[in-house]
Amino acid sequence: MKNVVSKVTSFIAVMSVAALQTSFADVDGEITENNLETGAFTVAIDEKAEVVVGEQVVALSELDGKQIEIAAGEVTSVAEGSYTAIFDSEDVTVGMAALVKQYAPEHEADHLSAIPDDEFAVVDAVVDANLDAPAAAKACKAAIEEYPEESRFYAQLGRALEVDGKPASAILQYEKAIALRPDYPVAMHNLAKLRFYGPEELRDFETARKHFNRSAELGFDASLAVIGTMARDGMGGDRDYAAAANWFSIAAENGNAFSQNALAECFENGWGIDQDISKALLWYRSSAELGYVPAYRNLGRVFQDGIGVSESDRKAFDWYSRAAEKDDVESQFHVGQAFLKGKGVVHSQEYGIEWLTKAADAGHAKAMRAIASYYYSRGDSKNGELDLAAAWYKKAASNGDVVAQFNLGSMFEKGEGIDRDKNLAINWYRQAARQGHSESQKRLIKLKADW
Predict the structure, then answer these.
(1) C-alpha dihedral, 124 to 128 to 131 to 137, nearest 10°
(2) Does the global pTM surpass 0.85?
(3) Domain covering 2-100 assigned CATH 2.40.10 in the classification
(4) pLDDT in tens, 128-172
């Protein structure tokens, strides 16, 4: 597919500008004859269609109900209602569809705003860091005035506006590009991104999912992982584990580390695919070898819990440590716990509290509770560590940790490290009870309070 695209785009510069300015609609046709002596194929087209010698053509074959490009070729002669073409593959046969893709000529707008991974781009892409958004937008508008039927200029204008911080205007231009060329992968992907990640008032998960899905169907790699995630999590439509596993599998095979980890989770949990722990471990490891940090964490959990492998505190610690060093908060929590308990590593209260504090500072409620429990276990009425325990329990409780809410309620009820306060005790017991914490419910009954 990529070879076809490159052959199509590389020939643009020498195409007839005069002919292109007449019309930019793709020309559909059917291969009707094969001249065995010359290797040329005759393609029947509508008599009103305009095709020019030298234009690029692709042969299409149907696969699973979709038209797939299997060969690239060049128009060698034109007659009324037909043209001849020579293709670069022996797989082309009579009866196949053929398509002449027509483009506007190279323009200043292309050099200022060509989109990365755009199969319809005619020059090398301009990365965001090098994009002069105002100048690009101005050039794209000029190009649109000259060639109002050329979809890529609308897409490039959308991208320039997006980079310039004008997402609503960008969406409108991407929509125009798609209206002119319904199967425009990068325009669909960029539009979907804005509808998924953009400002809250512009988010439309259903629209995002539709365009991510179609872009993925057209083979646009960047859409695969996102549509897999949306299908898995039921965003913008029904939850569809089978579809998610399918998209993750395609992206994983293409070397996408995120999708390899996600596919491993599908295999581990049997989401949309037969449960297979061996394959889960393979994809976790592959993702980790590509440097994907959540895969490090998953491997730490695998060895910690003995999922398909022998339990190994040491190996669990090694993988959690790799992730923790990369600022993975959940792994920082596990590393801190390992140091405090001496599991897989030499016991160290200093390192344990250091790693737990890193996780707690990042908002990890269980890490806050673990620090509180550490100080509570060491505290008495004189050394001040009960004060620290209460302070950390309050942080964890305020972040919704149900055990911390109960423990803080108990400290208020008993006056441990803090002044005894029945009302505050009831308040924290009540918050825990409303999360289903049975011990808190019992304490409220004893204190004759509801929840």
Answers:
(1) 100
(2) no
(3) yes
(4) 999 999 999 999 999 999 999 999 999 999 999 999 999 999 999
